Amino acid sequence: MKPDVPGRGARWAVLGAAFAALVFDGFELGLMPLASLSVSKSLLGEGYTATLGGDWFARFTAALMFGAAVGGIALGNLGDRIGRARAMGVSILLYSVFAGLGAWARSQEEMLVLRFLVGLGVGGVWPNAVALVAESWPDKSRPLVAGLMGCAINAGILLLSQLAQLWPVTETSWRWLFQLAGLPAGLGLAVLVLLPESPAWRAARAQPKGAGTRTPLRRLFGPELRRITWAGIALGTVPLVGAWAASKWMIPWADKVGGAVQADYKAVTQGWWAAGAMVGSLAGAQVARLLGRRRSYFLISLGSLALTAAMFQLTAPLRPSFLPVVFAQGLVATLFFGWLPLYLPELFPTAVRATGSGLAYNAGRFATAGGVLAAGALFTWLGGSYPAVGTAAALIYGLGMVAIAFAPETGKARLTP
């Protein structure tokens, strides 16, 4: 049993707040893939070209990933120090306020800085939300609530796609989307003031500490946890690089090919992907429970590699097969994001769980940012070919099939105290 598991009402309040925080997290993540070309056309004016638009998409994505990597590590550490709920509230305020300010951006450079600052909050929400929920619910419920945590981000992307179908995002009409992205600041304030803290965290903080107690980061890279920490980082890196350096190129590709025929085609494409992603991220933890952590990760990596390559090589926007393949790719490639909320908290003890989960999940975003920039350079070198760059970047999933061999098989019913 976990120490002092909260009552039913408190558990549902924690789950509801964490789910909502991650829904809006997903909204922020999906915003620039949908709006990037419209923003660039508006802010660059006559200097805009299709290749330059793709290059700026890579820069905006990399800025968000760098910010998320920094925020995930720093704010995960903050969650171990001041509490998961308070650190989650701070993270929500960060991504909301700076996303809202994007509505008044006057240049690409200003938007680039704002996307980095949004990323700080985007990265900080995940480790604190996942640790808070995992520590507040009974162990037998963890596969289900882990699936909900993974599903929430993609629910936000789906919500965004539906709004963009009702009100298309164009070069003359995109600022409203950023204003809308600022509204979750109210949730951040409510979480700071009202949400109960993790009982496991309170119990861990109440334990007597010696004068030589190490900081969470030092403990994670000490002899006891070093190997586990590096394994977690590798397993968190592959799906993130795959999602952003590979599969997310389908949105600007759909905009370029289908936008002239159907103004909302990019939003429709994102909606199909997000619908598959909601199913996949919800099912990921159950797949891990049924097949085992290591075997399931290997099979998800294999399936993601095959479907991402198929999406870019065997079909194309506006073809009848394109949207079903996008749905299937979204389903399989996001099984990772139900798998990770179940597995990563199992690796780390309570005192360093938010820091460890945040580091494992978000350190990969440094690699993701580098991968996106490399893919952007590759995109230019390949003459602006979306199928070519998407297929090349999809090879990252092959590394996942290797990385899982070095990770422990937890299969735990209980979290490490």
Number of helices: 19
Uncertain runs are none
Number of strands: 0
Going by CATH, what is the homologous superfamily?
MFS general substrate transporter like domains
CATH topology, which one? Answer: Growth Hormone, Chain: A
Tell me the structural class. Answer: mainly alpha
Q: Estimate percent helicity.
A: over 70%
Percent of sequence in beta strands: under 5%
Main beta sheet: strand number and arrangement?
none
Domain module count: 1
Spell the H/E element sequence: HHHHHHHHHHHHHHHHHHH
Question: Which CATH architecture is right?
Answer: Up-down Bundle
Q: What is the name of the CATH class? A: Mainly Alpha
| Nearest-integer average pLDDT | 86
Shape by Cα distribution: globular
Rg, Å, rounded: 20 Å
Distance between the termini: 10 Å
Structural overview:
There is one protein chain. 76% of the residues lie in helices and 0% in strands. The chain contains 19 helices and no strands. It starts with 7 loop residues before the first helix and ends in a 14-residue tail after the last helix. The chain has one domain: Up-down Bundle (Growth Hormone, Chain: A). With 417 residues, it is an all-alpha fold.
